[in-house]
């Protein structure tokens, strides 16, 4: 079927577009879902592709820091738990790339953009996992922060994304409890194990708070995303919610969060916390974190070293269907 | 809001109860209701040694497959390889625990503190010479083609053994086999499909996969050479003599390779058992160093 000709906008198409925009706005206002075949403004489509792809990349790159402990997990039970978790992350990546594909994106193209540095992933995964306690702390803090960010996305205005996020959040919440359970076990163990947990908390606390993104005063895309029903709460609001949720968990665990300013404000019932090092966030996002180069190199190797496998599978499928 | 509830309802349908959010929960215990006492007349040391053979094969192959995680050709393959590794790890845990229940712990208990479960004492505190896996699973992965040929060979042989073990006089081995047969049927199918695609894909994939088959085939000798333990237990109706599955296994493998337009390498000559007797190349020691390093640094810790 030939592509429709691109005419200069006539009065009729302008009127059509206006009607479609009104329908779109009404759908958003009614908190109903936009579905793949619905008309949507180009900016909405572009913003969603960027956000969903970044989220998918984060799941896939996020397999690496914990994956570093898969071969060395110190018990068979922990190995099985970690393997299942890393497997879930691959699954999340697949759902999310699929959601992006409903918007016209292509998974291989998005992967190329990741590898070439044209699309980002969560800065948190550029930090190294130095001990096995990091596996537990990633589950507790990093997955915990991800849940705070992602639960509101289950109500995202874009249907495929919202539905993917429901399953992702359920599994993330399972991972968070598994991470916390590992830390509880380690805290009941030897002095050495307790020190490992505290050290991991010290290293991951501030990067976890940075997962919510820049402060509201410096978050350029937020207003439009909120208007479109893609974003539901501000970065600072979610960050505060995470701190309030985590402080009692840290107390129960018996670790100290590395912030001397952290204190409960009796008047509001919320926790005040110290200033974040936004320069560090900028450095890590711009590729100068401790593990940026290594993360991308491994993703690139998985693509390039196995290109012959994908070519073979494509050639085989073509032979079977007769399109040689 | 109405549409909100619809979305969550769909999730409830997909997941059922609260306890089944992820892999590894809400599964049936394969040993539920199974009498775990060692049957009368069965030699405990032989039974334990045999469980180590099957358990070590599963553990070492799971570790090899896990090496692919974050390095696999496609995300679908990350999921599939992790799935297969998890199944094998599950089999290994049951079999190592059975070996321990039969009293076979080797030198592991001399190194592991009492708080460490038996399955971990055996997995983490034995040296290479106490492992009873075959050379087929201990060998390094090679490229993805070689990995899939090895997976095909190893799962075809294991499926043939477990299929017969379902009738074992040891109720635990029979239960582990009954569960494992379903898993291995999928593993073998997954590997066979890849061997077909790669053998009959492009010239490069054909060349690589043929080289993989040529590297894997000589390792089959170690799979089919029975040890005294296997012979005695097979005679007692407890185990399977691997020599008895040789014809079936090599027939299945030859058919897959031929369909994949690959040349079937010559069958290796019979040789005395090597891996089953604890004789391994340096590759197993390297694999174990990675697997065991952290646990051994903290021999009294529980995780």
UniProtKB/TrEMBL annotation, chain A:
Keywords in alphabetical order: Oxidoreductase
EC number(s) reported in the record: 1.14.13.149
Residues forming coiled coils: none
InterPro entries the UniProt entry points to: Aromatic_CoA_ox/epox, Ferritin-like, Ferritin-like_SF, PaaA, PaaA_PaaC
Lipid biosynthesis found in the keyword field: no
GO CC annotation, single: cytosol
Enzyme class: oxidoreductase
GO MF assignments: phenylacetyl-CoA 1,2-epoxidase activity
Single GO BP term: phenylacetate catabolic process
Entry-linked NCBIfam families: PA_CoA_Oxy1 (TIGR02156)
Protein name: 1,2-phenylacetyl-CoA epoxidase subunit A
Lineage, top ranks: Bacteria, Bacillati, Actinomycetota, Actinomycetes, Geodermatophilales
UniProtKB/TrEMBL annotation, chain B:
Domain of life: Bacteria
A GO cellular-component term linked to this record: cytosol
GO biological process: phenylacetate catabolic process
Species per Swiss-Prot/TrEMBL record: Blastococcus saxobsidens
NCBIfam families assigned to the protein according to its UniProt record, in alphabetical order: PA_CoA_Oxy3 (TIGR02158)
Record's protein name: Phenylacetate-CoA oxygenase subunit PaaC
Gene name per UniProt: paaC
Record-linked Gene3D superfamilies: 1.20.1260.10
